[in-house]
């Protein structure tokens, strides 16, 4: 997998990817990174990449020529990779999209700034994605969110190959169950006895029940869309043991 990021602040991307499990994945070669600064493709004085919007209004708009040139360069380095524009107007990113992206050989991520990009750049964009219904100063953080979400699904990036499969949304579309570690008692709170039983079947059922309850309580919107199977309904109705 190769990520190519188009940003006027490539150092933000590079610095973040030096740390943590994703940074180790990059250092170990589990994925590759290319950075493209639109200023390097500007023909204007001071490597300018923005201008005032036609029709008036506040703010500045990123100009089409340097962005289109940067996209073309990224496509040459990462052939066949879809171009993804990170924008508040895009579809909201979810785990299913990340899993699909993880199956690609490469991704080209376009991080906008200011009031956005010249609409004519959209002719070179394949998909538009958002990380939520709010506005940030630029697309670098959304690009990093997408990259980390995809990178941790790639083979070898996480320490345990099953870790990603146990995350929220990855297991039957449910939120993750509660987790505990040593010590067994913290103040008056104890680890649920079932987790100390060694009975893997009981533990699996407990975890599924907890995931179902947590999802119903915290994300009823997801559960309404997902629904419950007859087996899951029966499991929720059972008493804890």
TrEMBL record:
Keyword set includes Membrane: no
Entry GO terms, CC: cytosol
Catalytic activity: guanosine(37) in tRNA + S-adenosyl-L-methionine = N(1)-methylguanosine(37) in tRNA + S-adenosyl-L-homocysteine + H(+)
Binding site for S-adenosyl-L-methionine: 112, 131-136
Pfam family, one: tRNA_m1G_MT
Example GO biological process: tRNA N1-guanine methylation
CDD domains: TrmD-like
GO molecular function, one term: tRNA (guanine(37)-N1)-methyltransferase activity
Role description: Specifically methylates guanosine-37 in various tRNAs.
Record-stated family: Belongs to the RNA methyltransferase TrmD family.
UniProt name for this protein: tRNA (guanine-N(1)-)-methyltransferase
Species in which this protein is naturally found: Acidithiobacillus caldus
């Amino acid at each position: 997998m190769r990520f190519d990021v188009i940003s006027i602040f490539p150092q933000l991307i590079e610095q973040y990817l030096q740390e943590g499990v994703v940074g180790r994945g990059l250092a170990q070669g589990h994925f590759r990174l290319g950075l493209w600064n639109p200023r390097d493709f500007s023909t204007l004085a001071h490597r300018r990449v923005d201008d005032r919007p036609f029709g008036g209004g506040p703010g500045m708009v990123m100009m089409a020529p340097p962005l289109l040139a940067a996209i073309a360069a990224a496509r040459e380095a990462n052939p066949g990779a879809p171009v993804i524009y990170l924008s508040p107007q895009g579809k909201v990113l979810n785990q299913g999209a990340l899993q699909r992206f993880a199956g690609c050989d490469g991704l080209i991520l376009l991080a906008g700034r200011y009031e956005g990009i010249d609409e004519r750049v959209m002719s070179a964009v394949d998909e538009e994605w958002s990380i939520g219904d709010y506005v940030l100063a630029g697309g670098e953080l959304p690009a990093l969110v997408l990259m980390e979400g995809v990178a941790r699904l790639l083979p070898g990036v996480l320490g345990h190959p099953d870790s990603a499969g146990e995350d929220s949304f990855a297991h039957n579309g449910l939120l993750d169950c509660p987790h505990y570690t040593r010590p067994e008692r913290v103040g008056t709170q104890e680890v649920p006895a079932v987790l100390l039983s060694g009975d893997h079947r009981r533990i699996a059922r407990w975890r599924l029940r907890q995931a179902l309850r947590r999802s119903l309580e915290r994300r009823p919107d997801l559960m309404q869309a997902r629904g419950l199977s007859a087996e899951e309904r029966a499991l929720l109705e059972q008493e804890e043991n």
